[in-house]
Here is the input.
Amino acid sequence: MNHWPSATALEQAAEVLVRFQRLGLCIATAESCTGGLVSAALTAVPGSSSTLLAGFVTYSNEAKESMLGVPASVLAEFGAVSEAVARAMAEGALDRSSADVSVAITGIAGPGGATADKPVGLVHFAAAKRGGDTVARHHVFAGDRDAVRSASLVEALNLLLEAAKA
Here is the structure.
């Protein structure tokens, strides 16, 4: 198993925190397949408590509904690993915190859980900004569970950097 977070992720997390602190913005995370890795990377950096306000680990559909307000109908129609759910997770994290920006991650890290249209490595991301638009993207990452989760961490931190620019 890899050691979390990697030195590269720590450097990237530090860059996220510096940018958000300079802008006076705060962050909330909503994580499923990463199980809190984004929050872990951010909190590994000294001084993160002034910027990271909340971290939601919502691995189950029930947690997505109860903690983030993801509608059961959205989960039923699109499935937990979908753009619609990632968007709802990001928006729910803002609704349930006083953060300015949130990032959400939901995916299939493997080795099981795949379907014909949702392969192992498929991860959906969304970032929501208070008073702004929610942006979403997805990737299909290669490799084992650790590789998918590690790549998802990096992508989520990139999405936070982009959200801070918008």
About this structure: The longest helix spans residues 145-165. The longest strand covers residues 122-129.
